[in-house]
């Protein structure tokens, strides 16, 4: 996008230079036109070379027509230059607003990520604590189960001795 802006700026500068050259040519043509008018006035004053006057008049008219065409061309160039400037301005504004939107979005995502990292750390701490508690409970249950099995075994032994004693009695 930056390259597009640079290209448009270069084109604007090129067209500005072209418009300045046209203005300079217009000034030169205007100066020539003034000289032609002076020459014509001298010719009319001296009543010599009427054919030259006609020719100069035609040249002046041609140059006037050329000046008019140049002025029209210059006006079109100005309009086009104005359109290009407006377009570049709109593109720059669009680019700036898009860049600001992206910066805001990145900031929001960074904050969200930070909050998620905090949540994950909290969950990991709780999970670690629960894991330790579960291990302790498992150890206690294993001990109780071993005790229960021992007691069951002792009960069976005593029961069998009891049965044996009852039979003997």
UniProtKB/TrEMBL annotation:
One of its GO terms (cellular component) is deuterosome. Keywords: Coiled coil, Cytoplasm. Residues 92-126 form a coiled coil. Its main location: cytoplasm. It is found in: Cytoplasm. It comes from the Eukaryota. GO terms for biological process: centriole replication; de novo centriole assembly involved in multi-ciliated epithelial cell differentiation. This is DEUP1 protein. It comes from Podilymbus podiceps (Pied-billed grebe). The gene is Deup1.
């Amino acid at each position: 996008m930056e390259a597009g802006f640079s290209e448009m700026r270069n084109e604007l500068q090129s067209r500005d230079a072209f418009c300045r050259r046209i203005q300079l040519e217009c000034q030169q043509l205007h100066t020539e036109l003034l000289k032609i008018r002076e020459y014509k006035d001298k010719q009319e004053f001296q009543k010599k070379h009427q054919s030259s006057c006609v020719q100069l008049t035609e040249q002046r008219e041609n140059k006037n027509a050329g000046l008019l065409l140049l002025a029209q061309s210059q006006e079109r160039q100005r309009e086009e230059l104005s359109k290009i400037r407006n377009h570049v301005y709109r593109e720059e504004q669009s680019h700036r607003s898009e860049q600001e939107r992206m910066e805001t979005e990145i900031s929001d995502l960074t904050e969200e990520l930070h909050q998620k990292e905090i949540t994950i750390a909290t969950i990991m701490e709780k999970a670690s604590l629960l894991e330790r508690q579960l291990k302790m409970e498992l150890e206690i249950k294993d001990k109780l189960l071993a005790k229960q099995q021992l007691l069951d075994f002792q009960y069976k032994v005593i029961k069998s001795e009891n049965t044996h004693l009852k039979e003997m009695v």
